[in-house]
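Second attempt. The first submission of CENP-V/GFA domain-containing protein had a stray character pasted in from the spreadsheet, which I only caught after the job came back as garbage. Lesson logged: always re-copy from the clean sequence file. Corrected sequence (102 aa) follows.
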Amino acid sequence: MQTPLSAFQYIKGAPRTYKQENGVVREFCEKCGAFICEYGLMTDSVNLQEQAADKFRYVMWGTFDEPEKVPPKGEFFCQQRVQWMPEIRGMASRRLIETCEG
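This time the job returned cleanly.
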């Protein structure tokens, strides 16, 4: 879920981070390795990645204490959905996500 950086904070602990070659930064729980959030642009430009990092985080829905308070508005990467994962009816979906190439 896209979350403004001003509304996002860790209340306990500090995450481990991993910066991918495409500029996206992912944060994980330091204890269990659960994927918490990601930010940045898929580009080779460090400046653009830093601008995006100052504005928002994409927070994984499963990390919320009360996920029922933030219902999904859409789905992404639907082409990669495993068979046991049902489609979310009535939601916008994207089978493929175009990436920026440097």
